[in-house]
Amino acid sequence: MTGELGSSRCVVAVDGPSGSGKSTVSRRLATGLGARYLDTGAMYRAVTWAVLRSGVDLHDAAAVAKVAAEIDLAVGTDPAAPTFDVDGTCVDVAIRGNEVTGAVSAVAAVAEVRRLLVDRQRALVEAADRIVIEGRDIGTVVAPDADLKVYLTASAAERARRRSAENAADVAATAADLARRDQHDTTRAVDPLAQASDAVELDSTALGIDEVVATIREQLLARGVK
Fold first, then answer.
1. 200 CB contacts (<8 Å, ≥6 apart)?
2. What is the dihedral angle through the alpha carbons of 154, 200, 226, 3, rounded to the nearest 10 degrees?
């Protein structure tokens, strides 16, 4: 891919809560930069899918970690078509289902699972000349030396509206689920969702996707990324 800013190495870390627009913004930004794209949340979802399929107790940390260590997780980082395969099975659709969504916070809270996936994420970042990587602990844990760290947020009501529109779900039920996930993500003992001290905070409540992407591009240019 060829980016408008040239071929210099560039790592952009995008963090924020569910429904803030991270995935859409990150994919569009990566496409414009000629960069790879990594959705770290989908990696935890893929492990969760494997854990559910294995039948182990979600609250048995050792058993969950064993599943995570033994699966073959293949990750495709093309922003136009990111892919996730577990042991040769494409799980792109399956990991977005309600069952995985309801269980992923428990799996993502397991310290050994996080260690395994953070190591993998760092390797993917290192292998890419340019990459936009999104999640909840990117600027604080996975890529603390990123060229630009963005903390993308939006009001709780707007996040619920967006997510319910995506999933054709009830807004009130979606809001309750997002609140539950926010609580899990911000209070877990290992690598909780947090804004890095040097991150640029962007509130997307009243902004369109193109406006958010343009703002991030301006931040990159201001940092001399060409």
1. 148, 149, 150, 151, 216, 219
2. -20
- Looking at the chain, how many residues does it have? 226
Cβ atoms 48, 103 nearer than 8 A: yes
Pairing assessment for the beta strands 200-203 and 148-153 based on DSSP bridges: parallel
Residue among 151, 134, 130 nearest 44 (CA): 134
* pLDDT tens, residue by residue, 108-165: 999 999 999 999 999 999 999 999 999 999 999 999 999 999 999 999 999 999 888 8
- 3-state secondary structure labels for all residues of the chain: CCCCCCCCCEEEEEECCCCCCHHHHHHHHHHHHCCEEEEHHHHHHHHHHHHHHHCCCCCCHHHHHHHHHHCCEEEECCCCCCEEEECCEECCCHHHCHHHHHHHHHHHCCHHHHHHHHHHHHHHHHHCCEEEEEECCHHHHHCCCCCEEEEEECCHHHHHHHHHHHHCCCHHHHHHHHHHHHHHHHHCCCCCCCCCCCCEEEECCCCCHHHHHHHHHHHHHHCCCC
- Whether the predicted model's global pTM rises above the 0.85 cut: yes
- The answer to whether residue 42 scores a pLDDT higher than 60 is yes
Q: Note the pLDDT tens digit of each residue in 1-37.
A: 334 434 488 999 999 998 899 999 999 999 999 999 9
